[in-house]
Amino acid sequence: MTAETLNFNITYAAASRISEFDPQNISFGSVFTDHMLVADCINGVWQTPEILPYGEIAYNPALASLHYGQSIFEGMKAFKNENDEVLMFRPLENFKRFNISAERMCMAQVPEEIFIGGLEELLRIDAAWVPKGEDNSLYLRPFMFASDVYLGVRPSLNYRFMIIMSPAGKYYSTPPKVKVETEFIRAAPGGVGSAKCAGNYAASLYPAKLAQDQGYTQLLWTDAIEHKYFEESGTMNVMFVKDGKLITPNTSSTILKGITRDTLLQLAKSLGFETEERKISVEEIISGIQSGSVTEVFGAGTAVVVSPFAAIGFEGNDYALPEITEQSVSSQLKKALNDIRTGKVEDTFGWVWKV
Ligand SMILES: *Cc1c(COP(=O)(O)O)cnc(C)c1O
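# pyridoxal-5'-phosphate complex -> structure
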């Protein structure tokens, strides 16, 4: 079974809804393309995937994932180049990470033919939904949940894998003020921080809300043991520029291995910047901001590529960062990555996947 030979049972939508979609005015995650993919794993055997008109699915109230949270997802993007070809960015990395998350959550492994083949088939059918233009993309959301109808706590015997797709536009934002979190944690050693599992996001909402009540946009998570070392920022990896060098925490069981993080590290090296993956303490960064050696702090993730921060709040004080310019390291990295993933410049890394 390969992506080319795998059969999908396809039921086309009677009519496209694309005329209802305004590419000039995209609100993230609220509009979905005409089709979706559904594949069921029944007692360890994957059934023929279905491509169906996008719509509601029925569920039983005893659906295991609703009660005990066996649920994982990925977030990726497709772009259109000048020639209207649809491009995915490093999709095999998302595929591999999905199955790593599945293993940690004791869920079924998804075959590449279904994950990658399904994305390709859906993107061919709904290609018209991939918006053109700078900063526009089609957000791809593969996800899987336990589909047993059973209230006992045990790994589900059945799983449903799905892919839905949603147009995404420019992410307008002024650089946010972020708070160093020293009470609540996102992940603990040995926990599930390195899995993209649904519960991690549920657990982050309450501390994020408290920070928002104090005037911060999001959190900078610190380690669970000492609250001394930076881990991630909201649902992104975190990176710093210190003495012109790109530094970021090394990944571990508490830090998600971001594909953007890895991509930016490689791009930084190719642009001639030094990079370091190591433990980075709050103290090092706060004193670096004060002395001027730390010039940039930013989040890195698929959604925004890089999100530079205006200030860091720590123990009641705000430490402001210099304003970002086109010469900033984060701006250079963002441009380099956007140019590759939208096909503007040649991809010498082998990252772009033409559908
Ligand atoms: C998805 C995610 C990231 C970023 O990963 P990318 O592959 O770069 O999109 C970072 N941290 C967390 C917690 C995430 O869920």
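# post-check
The CA atoms of residues 211 and 218 lie 7 Å apart.
The radius of gyration is 21 Å.
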